[in-house]
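Example record for the data management plan.
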Amino acid sequence: MTEPDVAFTDYALAIECVLFAHLVRRREDALFFGSAAVASLAGGTVHGFFLDGRTVGNAILWRITLIAIGITAASAWAIGARVLFPVPTARRITIAAAAAFAAYCVVTLLITQDFRAALVFYLPAAVFLLIVLSTAYARARERGILVAVAGLGLMFIAAAVQQMKIALHPTYFDHNALYHLIQALALWLLFLGLRRLHADAT
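Corresponding structural encoding:
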């Protein structure tokens, strides 16, 4: 195994997301966590066994990773649209996100497999969801929504840790493994917040 710390933390993240996808009540929430699980599983396998970019396994699994991240981003748009806007507007936002995802897939499959392309596609969705949930909290002052906002904020911290290559240990727990650890906590907070939000809406 080439990068066991990254692979194992990715696999742990995948297990967590599968559990969350099973427990959430809304279809777009399940898609968010389910696609994150696929991205973690495929990405962990790349880091663990197919790190050489010349292998067929890398070519296939890395593209699956990037596309799964794109699905996570598109579902984040759908979640935010449903939380803040009336049904017709939310539907239009979701359709636009799906169209953008289709274009992203073309870029990912045919033009570039650079991880930065996934970040560029995912970042606006995460910012949108953060703004939506912050607005929802400002209106309702519901603690559960604040938990979800904290989770999203922690996701941005995790991304900064990864991009700045901050590691607990350069060999045994590198910046990618630390990113996964922080991301696991962030997703847990987001899951708790979304679940509470749905419970209050019913």
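Summary line stored alongside the record: The radius of gyration is 17 Å.
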